[in-house]
Amino acid sequence: MLTGLRIAIGWHFLHEGLEKAFQQSWSAKAFLEQSNNMFSPLFHSISENDILLGITNIINPWGQIIVGFSLVLGILSKPIKHFGLLLLLLYYLCSFSLGTAQIVNPILIELLTLGMLVLFPTSNKTGLDSFFEKT
Fold first, then answer.
1. CA-CA distance, 17 to 66, in Å (whole number)?
2. pTM as predicted
3. DSSP structure class, residue 74
4. 64-96 pLDDT tens trace
5. Alpha-helical runs (H) found in the chain
6. Are 96 and 102 a contacting pair, CB within 8 Å?
7. Are the C-beta atoms of residues 78 and 6 closer than 8 Å to each other?
8. Residue 88 vs residues 53, 83, 128, 135: alpha-carbon distances, Å
9. Contact, 12 vs 68, CB < 8 A?
C-alpha cells in the first residue's frame, strides 16, 4: 500500500509538472494572486515581481517533474520527498482559507501522505534505491 501511495503521489507530481512545463502560457501568477490568508502578502509580492515570478515559473514545474520521477522510480527518494514536502507546504500556505472547509484540502492530504512516506520509506525495498543500496 505504501509503495502504491509513493507511486501515485509521484505520478500526480509528474503529471502536474509536465502539464505546466509544456504549456507555454502557464504561469504561477494566477495561483499566487488567489491567495487569501495571512500569507497572502508574501505570495502576492512574488506574483508582482517579474524576477521572482520567473524563478517560480521555472522551479515549480521542473521541481514537480523531478519529484514525480523520483517517487515513481523510487530513486533518491529521501531528499526528494523533503523537496516535495516543501513544494506542497508552499502550495498549501498559498491556498488555504481560514474559516472555511478549505483548511483541509487535497493539497493538505497529499502533504500529510507524503510526510507519512518520509517516516515509512518504501524505495529501499521496492524502488531503484534498493538496487543502489546493494551495490
1. 9
2. 0.91
3. T
4. 999 999 999 999 988 999 999 999 999 999 998
5. 2-21, 29-33, 40-48, 50-73, 77-95, 106-119, 123-126, 128-134
6. yes
7. no
8. 18, 9, 24, 33
9. yes
